[in-house]
Amino acid sequence: MRPLQLDSSDVLHALYNRPPRELSAHGIRYERLRQLFKTRFPESDPKFIVRAPGRVNLIGEHTDYNGYPVLPMALDRDILFTAAPSNGTTVDLINENPQFERRSFNATFPVAPFERGDWGNYVKAAVHGLLEAGLVSKSKAVGFHAAVGGTIPESAGLSSSSAMVVAAALAFLAANGVECDRNALADILARAERYVGSEGGGMDQAVSLLAEAGHALRIDFFPLRTELVPLRQELTFIVCNSLIRAPKSESVRYAYNRRVVECRLATALLSRAVTQRTGRTVKAERLSDLSSAQLGPAYPELGETARHAIGERPLSLSAVAELLAMTPRQVQREYCMQRDGTPLPEPPDGFRIWNRYRHIVTEAARVGLTVKALKSGDNTEVGRLMNQSHASCRDDYEISCPELDTLVSLGLENGALGARLTGAGFGGCTVHAVPTETVAEFLKKMDVSYYKGYVKREQARPFSSFNNLNDVMFSCHAASGADFWPVGEG
Ligand code: NG1
Question: Is the pLDDT of residue 221 over 50?
């Protein structure tokens, strides 16, 4: 990718696709970071700016690592780096949010992580990943220093972590004068982010790099393919933050990785069953390799085969091992390993493989149907599919929580056509499809019923606090994907 060559007002308009009166706040942020850079790195001038957006996923939850599609859009909330190459390998980072302390490290491979949960690990993930992939030379790498700022709520399912990884990667590439195709970079960064410990898919890095303003993006994986889906004026997507944090690098890590493992086990059980039924060896790496489309017309009744192979009850590790004709240790080594080299501990309530499988295949179908409904302007159908998705996330994938369920029901009561949790779940945000003409009224009602109602009543719950309502509940304006551009001396 090449740097943007535009003057500042054009840059802002191209990136955010908003009327001029709404652009000034962004202009102020850019200027603030430039000032921060100048005060904290007085010995050099900023040479380039990098921007990477967060995203809201409209539908297709946890489908990405199973090889099935997703449908996110980039937000006009993003991470910015104002940066310059360093003289050696040092990467030096100042964050304008004082909660995130200054971090520095050397861009020499391998890059050892900071403590788990440290914000600097997302930058390290990008640097380590690009060095590992050989995109930046291990022997000649140049570091960078950067003033970093962001407007994406963190641990909220809006991909602030991937935006940080993408921004750091673009800064590292720019510092080294390396250009890279966006699709290839998205693939590399999807793998790179696993450095923080969760076994994530590729949705977030791909949408942050490949989105276009005014559009949602259908993303298919293995190999990565994208389709722009135009969004219509008359339907607005609204994000509501439940105020329950869901940090994937910390408490939610086990719950997330557990689902990845349960899907691997579903793939193994189903491959074995298909092989036995057809007499042909089926080698599947992920669930999408076992779809009817992949297997062909010889296998129409896949659902029944899966039900039979997996069974509807939760399975212990030894029960899975028996079904696969393996020992429990072999199953652990083959399917349960995490990035840090440890096997996922067996869940005490058993692996819920059938439910996970059912969520993934029904959710994958809903993505296709939602794209169709958005294209034809059938907003009622979009809403219906979102509601079904939420029920499946809640009951089969079990990634909801009382606050997300409450926001979804309140949203529907308050006039949304559809509502669902978005992102990894376990807390974070919901997304609501609302007729644009009723947005103002909807926001008011949600404020009264959730933020001034539920949150005030349920005082024992660990809600995050907030200063500005617009930081926790807002309309989504589909922005463009990540970019970088040179800055003048100024
Ligand atoms: P968030 O919501 O950013 O934690 C995670 C994964 C995605 C995807 C979603 C669930 C990472 C970086 N992101 O997103 O790949 O699996 O959960 O749909 O792990």
Answer: yes
